[in-house]
Amino acid sequence: MGKIYERITDRLRDFITGQPVFFVATAPESGGHVNVSPKGYADTFAVIDDTTVAYLDLDGSGVETIAHIRDNGRVTLMFCAFGGSPNIVRLYGTGRVVTPLDDDFDELIKLFGPHPGVRSIIVVRCGRISDSCGFSVPFMSFDEDRTLLDEWAGRKDVQQKRAYRSKNNRESIDGLPALRAEETDPVARHS
């Protein structure tokens, strides 16, 4: 059945980078809402080393992950096989929010494909890496990525993106701080 790993093995790396969708779970330190977010676009996830992964955080209506990570750092990423052999991989770790204002942003952004709505990069140092059977996960086929998020972000100019982030991404639904005022400016360069 399930197994715990000290590092992301080549087999695990192939599995997680081969999934068209993964899920990110976070929660505030005390009270509040637990959040689970689906993430798509294969070129928005990267394995940095044997215990570190990162993903591109794109514009969205909520900002729970950023707020929760800044609150306590706890984050879990889950990858499910919807085709082939049944498998679920969970990466439990401590997250870090990297914005365009941070020194390592320019280097990290090179790991990802081009997307017009980049808010930040979430880097996760994995403290527990595990897999389990996934016997009850249904078979589903992947047709293609939805392009709506990139299209939406691509239609917004700098002022519109700044206004949207200021209105929707400054705090979590529980009132935790998320993007700071200076972090609402859109990235001037694509990933």
Topology:
Elements: E1 3-5, H1 10-17, E2 22-26, E3 35-39, E4 45-49, E5 52-58, H2 64-72, E6 74-80, E7 88-98, H3 105-108, E8 118-132, H4 148-154, H5 158-168
Antiparallel strand pairs: 1-8, 2-3, 2-6, 4-5, 5-8, 6-7, 7-8
Question: Your description of this structure?
Answer:
The protein has 191 residues and is α+β, with helices and mostly antiparallel strands. It has a single domain, classed as Pnp Oxidase, Chain A, CATH 2.30.110.10. The protein is built from five helices and eight strands, in the order βαββββαββαβαα. The protein has helices spanning 10-17, 64-72, 105-108, 148-154, 158-168; strands at residues 3-5, 22-26, 35-39, 45-49, 52-58, 74-80, 88-98, 118-132. Strands 1, 2, 3, 4, 5, 6, 7 and 8 form an eight-stranded antiparallel beta sheet that branches. β4 and β5 (52-58) form a beta hairpin. The chain starts with a strand and ends in a 23-residue tail after the last helix. This is Pyridoxamine 5'-phosphate oxidase.
What integer value in Å does the Rg equal?
17 Å
**What is the CATH class name?**
Mainly Beta
Portion of residues in beta strands equals 25-35%
In quaternary terms, these chains amount to single chain
- Separation, N- and C-terminal Cα atoms: 38 Å
Number of strands: 8
Give the CA-based shape: globular
Structural class: alpha+beta
Count the helices. How many? 5
Q: Just name the CATH architecture.
A: Roll
Average pLDDT level:
94
Number of domains: 1
Bin the helical content. Answer: 10-25%
| The named CATH superfamily | Electron Transport, Fmn-binding Protein, Chain A
Can you write the helix and strand succession as a string?
EHEEEEHEEHEHH
Q: Please name the CATH topology.
A: Pnp Oxidase, Chain A
Stretches where pLDDT is under 50 for at least 5 consecutive residues are none
Main sheet summary: 8 strands, antiparallel
Biased composition (Basic and acidic residues): 180-191
Protein name: Pyridoxamine 5'-phosphate oxidase
Domain Pyridoxamine 5'-phosphate oxidase N-terminal: 8-108
Organism: Planotetraspora thailandica
